[in-house]
Design brief:
The complex is a heterodimer of chains A (271) and B (274). Chain A is of the alpha/beta class. Chain A has eight helices and ten strands. In chain A, the strands form two sheets. Chain A has a six-stranded mixed sheet with strand order 6-7-8-3-9-10, sandwiched between helices. Chain A has a four-stranded antiparallel sheet with strand order 2-1-4-5. In chain A, a hairpin with a 2-residue loop joins strand 1 and strand 2. The N terminus and C terminus of chain A are likely disordered. The chains are: A alpha/beta (271), B mainly alpha (274). The complex binds adenosine-5'-triphosphate (ATP) and magnesium ion (MG). Magnesium ion (MG) binds next to helix 2 of chain A.
């Protein structure tokens, strides 16, 4: 287990230019009772092709951090850069898959949702957008549901649409905020495997948020643990490809290691 | 990834489908009401106070045949549509201002809370002072009756949009007019639609009331005027025929226009249960 500073070093390392850099980022919310610091002094760097998982218990500021990277929130101090440029307003170069099921446009069909995103986000013509959208919906196993409206889908299927939409836009960075948290354990496992496959096939760079250690090991190439109140970096772990298979000893050992390092209370790990 | 297969559907029994789709309960209630009216009117036997249903219908029929009622109705509807469109347009502008700026937000909140409880018809005297007797005064009170409920509903609708949906829209790089037209408006459509519905009902009521008050002075009056003159000539059956027309047009717009609009939009999108 090595500790946070590694990432700060990486940020300044010219040899491996990072795609995303967070430089001492703190984020706070104004509330009725005063200012709530949700994230404090987080620095990290992420290079292309990496999949970084933010792991931590509920309320430690994972979503907050992800929203700031998405451009939906401004850090109160520090800077977020992509390709060494400060990030601006939200845009299709950073596509977010949210935890909530209501991220699809209810007035568009499954195909319509993905097609519309492509028309607006990638400025494709309607016909091109439709072809690309169909291709991605097929890849996530939804070709029988292209004409369905979102409210007729199950939660897992909605998340598949959101994932298809995000991948279809070919963002430089994929942001995923516990996309499987509201699914049952079996579906969640299946979705994790399928997501991993998609990421590997496309070589996507991703920032993934979860509070499940097994999920973190399964989908990430490295894991960052956060402590709550306020959210700070606690530890980082690399996930060697050999540890990524469920049921192997390497997987179990890494899981154990993270658990001991991060969660004092063993009840907390599976959400 | 493995394809998810579509679920199999089985057919609901035909008889039950017919039963569920026809508004037969309503028809039964309507028939019972008509029967009660007819019987009570016959028993009362006073055509000046309460004409029978039959007399009312025949008065309605002859007023339609003579062309008077259709003309009056058309006059009313023309004023109504003008006022309604204007009111909805102004409401859209107000809501846009309120959504775009804090001052606009406060202003709309204050204005709606001030004017929404004020019956539009109470402004008729002022309207008559400002615009004189005629269509402009009617349009003015109709605009007033439509504007506030519609603006209130649109504004509430915009504010009730789930934040995730807003973020999903902004994530595509949308902003300005496109964001409003392609995300905000459809997302708030259930509320907007119910605002339009309420606005319509208010406008229709206000118009009939205003036409009644106009009384003696309007030469080319609408249905309200028809009711007023019929009463003055003690043709109670025609009064009832006029009222029936008001109800029928209200029902027609409600059940044809708004019902189908609801069906092809918010019900289809799962934003309102069927
Ligand atoms: N809009 C907001 N206004 C005020 N405080 C907020 C807001 N959003 C989040 N917070 C606070 O910031 C802290 C971090 O919240 P955040 O949603 O980022 O946590 P999280 O790690 O994503 O938790 P979870 O795993 O439950 O999703 C919490 O204490 C929360 O109460
Ligand atoms: Mg969260």
């Amino acid at each position: 287990m090595n500790v946070a500073p590694r990432l700060v070093d990486l940020a300044g390392d010219a040899a491996s230019p990072s795609l995303l850099t967070l430089d001492r980022v703190s984020i706070s919310y104004p509330t009725r009772d005063g200012i709530l610091t949700a994230v404090e002094d987080v620095s990290l760097a992420l290079s292309a092709g990496e999949r970084l998982v933010l792991l931590g218990p509920s309320g430690c500021g994972k979503s907050t951090l992800l929203r700031a990277v998405g451009g939906f929130l401004k850090p109160s101090t520090g800077e977020i850069r992509m390709n060494e440029q400060p990030i601006g307003a939200p845009g299709p170069d950073r596509m977010t898959v949210f935890q909530e099921f209501d991220q699809l446009l209810p007035w568009r069909t499954v195909l319509g949702n993905v097609r519309y995103a492509l028309e607006r986000g990638r400025s494709l013509s309607r016909r091109e957008a439709e072809a690309v959208a169909r291709g991605w919906l097929e890849r996530v196993g939804l070709k029988n549901f292209v004409d369905a409206f979102p409210h007729t889908l199950s939660g897992g299927m909605k998340q598949r649409v959101a994932i298809a939409r995000a991948f279809a836009l070919e963002p430089a960075l994929l942001l995923m905020d516990e996309p499987f948290a509201a699914l049952d354990a079996l579906t969640r496992r299946q979705m994790q495997d399928e997501l991993l496959k998609l990421c590997e096939e496309t070589g996507s760079t991703a920032l993934f948020v979860t509070h499940g250690i097994d999920e973190a090991i399964r989908v990430g190439t490295s894991i960052l643990a956060l402590t709550p109140h306020p959210g700070r970096l606690a530890a980082t772990f690399d996930v060697p490809p050999g540890s990524r298979t469920r049921g192997t000893t390497a997987f179990a050992e890494l899981e154990q290691k993270i658990q001991q390092a991060v969660f004092a209370d063993p009840e907390l790990d599976h959400g | 990834m493995a394809d998810i297969t579509a679920p199999k559907l089985s057919e609901a029994p035909a008889l039950r489908r017919v039963f569920e789709q026809t508004p037969w309960r309503r028809l039964v209630i309507l028939a019972a009401f008509a029967l009660a009216w007819e019987l009570y009117a016959r028993w009362l036997d006073n055509a000046l106070l309460l004409p029978t249903l039959g007399a009312t219908l025949s008065a309605l029929w002859s007023a339609i045949l003579s062309g008077e009622l259709p003309n009056r109705t058309l006059t009313s509807l023309r004023v109504l549509v003008t006022g309604y469109a204007l009111g909805v347009g102004v409401a859209a502008v107000f809501t846009a201002l309120a959504t775009l700026s804090r001052w606009g937000n406060e202003a709309l909140g204050l204005l709606t809370s001030m004017f929404n409880p004020l019956p539009a018809i109470a402004l008729l005297p002022i309207a008559l002072l400002w615009f004189g007797v005629g269509t402009p005064s009617l349009v003015f009170v109709i605009v007033h009756s439509v504007l506030w409920p519609v603006a209130l509903a649109c504004h509430a609708g915009f504010r009730a949009i789930p934040p995730t949906l807003l973020m999903a829209g902004r994530n595509l790089g949308l902003s300005g007019g496109r964001f409003v037209a392609e995300i905000l408006v459809p997302a708030a459509f259930p509320q907007i639609l119910s605002g339009l519905r309420i606005g319509w009902a208010f406008a229709w009521r206000t118009l009939i009331a205003a036409e009644l008050v106009f009384g003696v002075s309007a030469r080319s009056g609408g249905i309200g005027w028809f009711i007023y003159t019929s009463r003055a000539q003690l043709e109670t059956a025609s009064v009832f025929a006029g009222l029936l027309t008001v109800i029928l047009i209200g029902l027609l717009v409600e059940s044809v226009v708004f019902r189908s609009l609801t069906r092809i939009t918010v019900q289809r999108w799962g934003q309102e249960r069927t």
